[in-house]
Amino acid sequence: MQQRADLENESINHLFFDCSMARYVWSLVAYVVGADSRPCSFDQFWVWAKRFLPLGGKFLYVGLAAICWALWRMRNTIHFDKKVVRSPTEIICLASLFIFYWAKLQMEEDKAKLEAGAEALKKAALSFHPQEAQAEDAGVVLLH
Fold this sequence. Notes:
Layout: H1 12-18, H2 20-33, H3 42-52, H4 59-80, H5 88-103, H6 108-128
Helix pairs in contact: 1-2, 2-5, 2-6, 4-5, 5-6
């Protein structure tokens, strides 16, 4: 996902795993879960998740959906709105926001687990880029 990507050469794998923004996002996810590698494709994600998140269960779907949806939204923001994404931290905070939002749709125990995962992801992202958000922020970096 370049700032104004050449969409004719864009593939699903490039968008979600190979572009520099996606690689950074997945590297941060790997850091948060204590993995020594990041997934490089959807097929590899399931193998990677089974290895590093063996108890992830249904939460893997929520995490994968949130990250892919955030990458997709940012890609569209870049292409259609001609906005510039300052940092992959914006994508990670957006994915974290999706997880928090979707957690509200879960049973209480699952909600707490999803919220804890979203908070860990946001906290790790902001620890690498603390100048992008104030402590009182909800973790959302707006693209206006």
